[in-house]
Design a protein that fits this description.
It is a single chain. The chain contains nine helices and ten strands. The chain is of the alpha/beta class. The strands form two sheets. It has a six-stranded mixed β-sheet with strand order 6-7-8-3-9-10, sandwiched between helices. The protein has a four-stranded antiparallel β-sheet with strand order 2-1-4-5, covered by helices on one side. The chain is 35% helix and 23% strand. It has two domains: 186 residues, P-loop containing nucleotide triphosphate hydrolases (Rossmann fold), CATH 3.40.50; 77 residues, no CATH class. The structure holds adenosine-5'-triphosphate. The site of adenosine-5'-triphosphate has 12 residues, from strand 2 and helix 1. Pfam families: ABC_tran, BCA_ABC_TP_C.
Length: 272
C-alpha cells in the first residue's frame, strides 16, 4: 500500500532517517521498533507529509499503480487514505466522544460536508457513520461522554476511532498502548488486531509483548537505519537487533504484557 525508497531525513548534522527501503502490504500489520531517538516518529512524519525528506521517495498504491506522494502535504496524504494516531492526545477534550468522531468523519467528507444547511441528511449520515465506528472500537456506551472524562485507555480507543473516521487504507499508530494499564492493553490489542483485518497498519510500539503478539512483520530502526525487517521470531533472534534494542527481552510465558523496551530516557508515555 505504501513504500519508501532511500528515504532520508537530516536535521543539520544529524541523520534521523537514513536511506530506508520499506514496503507495507495490504492488510499487513507491521510494527516499527527501535530505541528512543531511532527515527520512528520522523519516519511516520515523512510518510504522512508532515516532514519533507532530504532525499528519497514515498509512494502510495492506488488505482492499481504506484503514485509518488513524496511532496504531498498531510492533508493530501490523508485524502489518499493514509491516517495516523498521535503519541500526544489530539482530542477535543470538552466535545463528546461522538462529536470527536463525527467531526473527523465530516472533515474527511471535504469542504461540502460543512454546508449542512444545504443537505439536512448529511449531518445524520456523519453521525451514523461515527456511531458505527464507536461501536467498532468498543465506545458505543460512551458516545455522550466528554472526551476529557474518558479513561486513558478509552482515549486511545477514541484516537483509533478518529483515525478510522478518515476511511483510511493505511493506518499509522503511534504508541497506542503508551501509559495504558495492563488490563486495558488487552482490549487495545484486540482492537489493533481487528483494525488490521481490513487495513494496512504500521505500529510504533515499545511494548515488546504487544509487538510479538500482533505483528505479521517487525521492522527495526537503529540510528535512522533499517537494521532488520521480517517475521517477529526471526527479528527477535537477530543478533544486531538484540544488541541494538532487544538485549534481555524474552517473551513472558505468563502473558504479562508489561515488558517495555523504551529505555530510561522516555518511559513511553503519560501515566495511566
Ligand atoms: N525537528 C527536529 N529537529 C531536530 N532534530 C530532530 C527533530 N525531530 C527529531 N529529531 C532528532 O531525530 C532523531 C530521531 O528522533 P525521533 O523522534 O524520530 O525518534 P523516535 O525513534 O521516534 O524516538 P522515541 O521512541 O523517543 O519517540 C533524534 O535524535 C531526535 O532528537
Amino acid at each position: 500500500m505504501i513504500r519508501t525508497s532511500d528515504l532520508t531525513k537530516r536535521f543539520g548534522g544529524l541523520t534521523a532517517v537514513d536511506g530506508v527501503e520499506f514496503e507495507l502490504g495490504e492488510n499487513e500489520l507491521c510494527s516499527l521498533i527501535g530505541p528512543n531517538g531511532a527515527g520512528k516518529t520522523t519516519f511516520f512524519n515523512l510518510l504522512t507529509g508532515t516532514l519533507a525528506p532530504t532525499a528519497g521517495s514515498v509512494e502510495f498504491r492506488e488505482d492499481g499503480g504506484w503514485t509518488d506522494v513524496t511532496d504531498d502535504d498531510p492533508h493530501e496524504t490523508a485524502l489518499r487514505g493514509v491516517h495516523r494516531s498521535y503519541q500526544i492526545s489530539n482530542l477535543f477534550p470538552t466535545a463528546t466522544t461522538l462529536e470527536n468522531v463525527r467531526v473527523a468523519a465530516q472533515a474527511h467528507g471535504g469542504v461540502d460536508s460543512w454546508k449542512l444547511w444545504r443537505n439536512a441528511d448529511a449531518f445524520e449520515r456523519y453521525e451514523r457513520e461515527a456511531r458505527a465506528i464507536l461501536d467498532r472500537v468498543g465506545l458505543a456506551d460512551e458516545a455522550d461522554t466528554p472526551a476529557e472524562a474518558l479513561s486513558h485507555g478509552q482515549k486511545r480507543h477514541l484516537e483509533v476511532a478518529i483515525a478510522l473516521a478518515g476511511d483510511p487504507d493505511v493506518l499509522l499508530l503511534d504508541e497506542p498502548t503508551a501509559g495504558v494499564s495492563s488490563d486495558a492493553i488487552d482490549r487495545l490489542v484486540e482492537l489493533i488486531r481487528s483494525v488490521a483485518e481490513d487495513h494496512a497498519v504500521l505500529l510504533v510500539e515499545h511494548n515488546m509483548d504487544v509487538v510479538m503478539d500482533v505483528s505479521d512483520r517487525v521492522a527495526v530502526l537503529h540510528q535512522g537505519e533499517l537494521i532488520a525487517d521480517g517475521p517477529p521470531n526471526a527479528v527477535r533472534e537477530d543478533s544486531a537487533v538484540q544488541e541494538a534494542y532487544l538485549g534481555g527481552y524474552e517473551a513472558d510465558a505468563t502473558g504479562d504484557t508489561s515488558t517495555d523496551t523504551s529505555g530510561d530516557a522516555d518511559p513511553g508515555g503519560e501515566a495511566a
